[in-house]
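To: structure desk
From: M.T.
Subject: fold request, one chain
Message: Could you run this one when you get a chance? Sequence is below, nothing fancy, just the single chain.
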Amino acid sequence: MGYDKRQATEEFTRWSRSYDRSILQLLLFRPSHRVLIRRIREHYGARPIRVLDIGCGTGVFAERLRAELPAATVWGVDLVAGMLARGAVRWQALAGHVQPVQGDSERLPFAPGSFDVVTCANSFHHYPRQDKAVCEMRRVLKPGGRLMLIDGYRDAPYGWFIYDVCVAGIEGDVHHCSRKRMRSLFAAAGLESITQRVFRGPAPFLLTEAVAPKVSAIPEPHFAVVEAGKRARAG
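Reply: Done. Structure tokens follow.
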């Protein structure tokens, strides 16, 4: 039986109690957040942008992004109510600039073309339907908007041991994409100018980045969505 959303919800509800104190914050999350913020700054400078962070957890990345790029307005989506609840103090401090939303990566509760940037850091291996998730990420991007996705790099022997043996042994039947597989998911979703970069370290990770077509017909979703400027709820 494959990994499913019920398992993910149960796992992250348990993890929410210690998430902000996890060693992964130091080894993986902080370095990957620095990379994302640097890339966003390189492309957009300090001008106002709308950012959607998928798998936002307790809002650590949103807080860091706002500190570095105060003109950015951020929406954070997470499947797990417990994760969002653990970030309550952070959400309150960031009110007006960051909006947490409980929602599913396969059914993002936003209208097409709502965001300049979509980020997803270190949660993609938990998504049972990764193809659908990438298509949703592309759908909510503005024409010319950027998707930046980071997940563990498992192609080299060390990364394979860390992610396919150790992490999978703890978390269950999660799936870290190979570099080739990630590129194919992006291409199948209609994203363009795909680039990839590996970052080495105790927990190596892969950044895959791409651009939404500037002229494209994006199908309307088969579920209810709202404009990004309004409060959103899961469909």
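Reply (cont.): Strands lie at 50-54, 73-78, 98-102, 115-121, 141-152, 192-199, 205-211. Let me know if you need anything else for the meeting.
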